[in-house]
Amino acid sequence: LPQRIRHSALKIDGESVVELDYSSIHPYICYQRLLNSEGLNVYDVLGENFSPYDADLSFLSIDGTLKEEWERVTGKAHNPIRSLAKLAILIGMNSNDQAGAAWTLGNKVKQDRAANRIEDQDFYALNIKDNQYSLVLEAVRDHNDLIKDKFFSDAGIYLQNTDSKIMMSIVGAMGAKGHAVLAYHDSVLVKASAEHDLREAMYAAWKEVLGDTTFCKVEKK
User: Is the pTM of this model over 0.85?
Assistant: First the structure.
């Protein structure tokens, strides 16, 4: 279900749901493991405001008219370049080679643009050419230089194994408290009154699996 429907229509025990997710879960797992194994903290190197998604993608542009239209329809801010950076990291870490990753990234954007509803298109106002997808991947890899070896190396296999252990820990902890949970990728939905318990469970699960919560970022969607 699209996020707008998950939030507006789903009920658990008659209550509306809240959705919490791990921000940048795969790159932050990598940064957490780097800290654990080598004592190297990316925040010490690149500043406390570092984000895996803040790659220099200034060679891309946004159509201002389409951006305004999307924001008018959805009532939200439209930042397709940041959305593209997120997708590029996910695909880059789950691919064997850069060429395949570039093809997959381009195909995802084209599929997004084929959606009938404007509000279902994350890249509605983005201007991008076919030969720029590889440049996007290079930019996000270079921005994440401390973990660049995780790109185009099929690292997603062990990253998905790690995040599944985290999610199973959350499901177990919430179930022990009598809460029903819906796990969705790196997000978890619970009834509104269970939000505090879920947040605690998410931080505890990260620490259980990875030993430290320096790079555990939990956000409400």
Answer: yes
